[in-house]
Design brief:
single chain; alpha+beta; Aminopeptidase; Alpha-Beta Plaits; 3 domains; six-stranded mixed beta sheet; four-stranded antiparallel beta sheet; 13 helices; 19 strands
Length: 468
């Protein structure tokens, strides 16, 4: 627990005293959490990363890139910074394996965060304030700056323990995930830089679990963003006429609302998980004739528009869904048209559903499960992620990718006010990644346990070497 007079001392206005008070307050807080010196340092680095304001719509990526590059330098990692779009750097670290010709693994995370409404936060969203319970409040604490730093801390600890990976480990920090990743991960995965990494398995972000089981995601829903425009004749606001723009738009809104209810009912009844259904939400409405004080109240507008966020699972019948949009939601007979803002495919580049196998046919899944068990964790039933992440760009290439953020007993707060992650949970996640890296990149001895010797590499490693 923090000292009762800690807040008073931290409020000193003298710069030197402010720094000293901040150090004292931090030490008192971490003392209450019973952290070792190494754990304290790990938490401080996490807080430092969180303080970089990389919020949309105008994130400045250069300061955080300098910070990350310095972290890689301290660890002795090979570092590469590339800009496929000016002002949007991608940072790639490599821990060279003892057998670099083997297929590698990639740990991906993004550096950008979504906007905040400062008035609704109990602590400034870029101060990375840790309260007396060890909760660290910051935008990005769950989504997903925690994961990026956990990757590096796991590598730091493994290096200190003398571990040497057999296959190479790459760690990427990409921009713009929160705005679909078109100038970030998409271009990275399509680049020759990525091809040279020889990646066979990718880990990316998941979400927190509110119970004691870790959530893991083997696929995600594709984004279909579109708007529907209704046309009609303008008329006096007092007249009752058929064929008006808002009347046509109401037809569309009612049809979509019925479909939304039918899909939502499947979740409420337990028939399907939320990631398995098609979700659609009306995210904006636009109509009316503007005036200096608002809208002209006695004119029925000639056009009205509604925007929609629809998420489509990889198992959906997209042809039937497209037909529904054409014939039921935006039929031309009702003077309705539509235009897509973004329409992602649900298949990979080979025409198969963009899904990573979570059964014994996938040796990476076998090792991932093994690692979680060795770390003392348990996995919930694998799911399709409700939203979308940069992992889709790996799956599009047929590369196995899992979405995983090691947070248990934690409220899901991504994109919400007062986003936080507890320091103890953050530190536990580092240990989980240590075990994942040991299991997925270290050779096996005769007992199947990870070893740093090349002898007796085990059946599972031999299978991976041959098949991947």
């Amino acid at each position: 627990m923090a000292s009762p007079d800690c807040p008073r001392r931290c409020s000193s206005r003298t710069p030197a005293l402010l720094l000293l008070s901040a150090i004292i307050c931090f030490q008192q807080l971490v003392k209450g959490l019973s952290l070792s010196t190494e754990e304290e340092d790990a938490v401080k680095r996490f807080q430092e990363y969180l303080k970089f304001d990389t919020v949309h719509p105008s994130p400045d990526y250069y300061p955080v890139t300098e910070f990350l590059s310095e972290q890689g330098k301290q660890l002795g990692l090979d570092t590469k910074v590339v800009e496929y779009v000016q002002g949007k750097p991608v940072v790639v670290f490599t821990w060279q394996g003892t057998e670099p010709s083997l297929p590698s693994i990639l740990l991906n995370s993004h550096t950008d965060v979504v906007p905040v409404e400062h008035a609704y936060w109990k602590h400034p969203p870029f101060a990375a304030k840790m309260d007396e319970g060890g909760n660290i409040y910051a935008r990005g604490s769950q989504d997903m700056k925690c994961v990026g730093m956990q990757y590096l801390e796991a590598i730091r600890n493994l290096m200190s323990a003398g571990f040497k990976p057999q296959r190479s480990i790459h760690v990427s920090f990409v921009p713009d995930e929160e705005i679909a990743g078109g100038d970030g991960a998409k271009l990275f995965y399509e680049s020759s830089d990525f091809k040279e990494l020889n990646v066979a398995f990718v880990l990316d972000e998941g979400v927190a679990s509110q119970d004691g089981n870790y959530k893991v995601f083997y696929a995600e829903r594709s984004v279909w963003w579109f708007y529907i425009t209704a046309a009609g004749h303008p008329a006096h606001g007092s007249r009752l006429l058929d064929g008006m723009a808002l009347e046509h738009l109401r037809f569309s809104l009612n049809a979509i609302a019925d479909f939304r209810k039918s899909e939502f009912d499947k979740v409420k009844s337990g028939e399907k998980a939320e990631g398995e259904i098609i979700s659609i939400n009306n995210v904006y409405l636009k109509a009316g004739t503007p005036s200096p004080t608002g809208f002209v109240m006695n004119i029925q507008p000639s056009h009205a528009e509604a925007g929609f966020d629809m998420r489509v699972p990889p198992v959906a019948d997209v042809d039937a869904l497209q037909k529904r949009l054409d014939e039921e939601w935006a039929p031309a007979s009702k003077n309705l048209t539509y235009r897509f803002v973004q329409k992602d495919k649900v298949t990979d580049n080979f025409g198969k559903p963009a899904i990573t196998a979570v059964d014994d046919s996938n040796p990476w899944w076998i090792m991932f499960k093994e690692a979680i068990a060795k770390a003392g964790g348990t996995l919930a039933k694998p799911e399709i992620l409700m939203g979308s992440t940069d992992a889709r760009y790996a799956r599009e290439q047929g590369i196995p990718a899992l979405g995983f953020s090691p947070m248990t007993n934690t409220p899901i707060l991504l994109h919400e006010h007062n986003e936080f992650l507890n320091a103890k949970e953050y530190l536990m996640g580092i240990k989980v990644y240590e075990q994942i890296l040991r299991t997925c990149t270290g050779p096996k001895d005769e007992s199947g346990e990870p070893s740093n010797s090349k002898a007796g590499s085990g059946v599972l490693s031999e299978t991976i070497h041959t098949e991947l």
